[in-house]
Amino acid sequence: MVIAIAQLMVVLDATIVNIALPSAQRDLGMSDANRQWVITAYTLAFGGLLLLGGRIADLVGRKKTFMVGLVGFAVASGLGGAAGGSGLLFGARALQGAFAALLAPSALSLLTTTFTVGRERGKAFGIYGAIAGGGAAIGLIAGGLLTEYLNWRWCLYVNVPVATVAFAAAAVVLRSKAVPQRAHLDIPGVLLGCSGLVAIVYGCSEARPRGWGDGLVVGMLVGGVLLLGAFAWWQARARHPLLPPHVVRDRNRGGAFLTMALAVIAMFGMFLFLTYYLQTVLGYSPLKAGLAFLPMVAAIVIGSTQISARLLHLVPPRFLMVPGALLASAGLFTLTFLTAESAYAAHVLPAELLVGLGMGLTFMPVMATATAGVAPRDAGVTSATVNTAQQVGGSIGTALLNTIATSTSATYLASRLADAARHSGGHPVPPAVREAVVKAGVVHGFTVAIGVGSVIMLGAALAAGLIVNGPAPRQDQVPATGSADSAESAVR
Fold first, then answer.
1. 213 located within any domain
2. Quick check: 85 and 28 in contact, CB under 8 A?
3. 345: closest CA among 275, 300, 295, 270?
4. How many domains does the chain have?
């Protein structure tokens, strides 16, 4: 429960301020150009520092890093809630992201090293997988509730009491065995890896307002790829690498990382479009739009805790990942039939249930497989790599699918408004006609982008089916993934 609470804070904070952003913008006088930094500051710091946070957890101790992360996250949240200007809010959000980069990998590595056998491991990862898959939707619900009944500041303040309770409980119940090793931090690896991740996450964030062809965006993405290439080259040569090559070289672990990244690309795009669709097209209030995601959260919880957790020790992980990704892809595909007049119960709800059940089936075995059989000394950095795949996938998905949606909508609107102008015989297009065309154009853009997301989710199913080939884990040990360190861990 302690690990689950902490992980939920980290995941939902990526989306909880989305619904509150218009209120915060009005209160603090933010410009339209700068408001995105409330989101970007968090994702940049979080995504860029995860590998460093994971290695610190391995070197300093997971419980200690976890508790420091909780305190820092609470302080940063309090600062953000009390911000009197946009600069302090941006800084607080970046600080939140930095401490989240300590908290997330230490939480997952604590889970990995605490629950090491069959059914108990399945239950633990079932709960964790439900949070990983549903946390973004829970953030939208919580953001709607807090903004409507309190104010936007409580979207940040709420972390303070939650982190306080988690800290007190962690001090009592968490156990973390010290892994004897000398503290060596790979400084060149830190600089190359963190800089590369920051550049890619920033490039994806800027692609939304600027477009993929913008010079800054292209420069950041190319620079990020080059930096990560240099990082990989250095890790193969460093005496004490930040990310030991065997962690990602393992076939099952690498397949799990790729499956996670592809699934999150598709899923985060869907969250973005459904949020806009429910509010701007169907006219839902922020609270109602948030609550509309509840069925998806319930489906994720059922898929993760009642299906995946019960079957993980009985079937190979890919037997859960592949059907899960296919279900999620089918759910996304059904959203391509949305229109401006669609009803929630008839069109949105079935898709939410399919996607939720699919993600519940996928996320839990992905997390378990990615962290299975890893040597205790590498548990933190392995957990950080899982979180990095999720974070970078979310950034790429949001930017890529948003760009596809806006460009498709623009083309559709230009064509249809020109047709409407011709039919009006040179008179101005009636406002009612213009409004209907605009709404249809927005929905058209959403459906095309979600269709691309459905194809990407098929790619996740393909990656899981072709790359992940590990057997069902035995009841009495951590599932081995084939590396020397896996064998060492299983013996321990």
1. no
2. yes
3. 295
4. 1
> What residue numbers bound the domain in which 372 lies?
2-175+242-475
Does the structure show a pLDDT above 90 at 331? yes
* In-domain check, residue 204: no
CATH number, domain with residue 39: 1.20.1250.20
Mean per-residue pLDDT, 241-258: 84
Note the pLDDT of residue 477. 47
CA distance linking residue 446 with residue 23, whole number of Å: 25
Long-range contacts of 485-492 (CB under 8 A, 24+ apart): 485/246, 485/373, 485/374, 485/375, 485/378, 486/250, 486/372, 486/373, 486/374, 486/375, 487/373, 488/375, 489/373, 489/374, 489/375, 489/376, 490/373, 492/376
First to last CA, the chain: 26
What pLDDT score does 478 carry?
43
pLDDT tens profile 357-402: 999 899 888 888 887 777 777 777 788 888 888 878 877 887 788 8
Out of 148-152, 175-179, 419-423, 468-472, pick the least confident: 175-179
Identify the CA nearest to 470 among candidates 378, 379, 366: 366
Rounded to 10 degrees, what is the CA torsion of 52, 56, 62, 67?
-80
- DSSP letter assigned to residue 347: I
For residues 450 and 405, what is the distance between their CA atoms, to the nearest angstrom?
8
Domain-embedded: residue 256: yes
pLDDT above 90 coverage of the chain, percent: 19
Domain-located, residue 344? yes
Mark out the alpha helices in 150-250 (DSSP H runs).
154-157, 159-173, 187-210, 215-235, 245-249
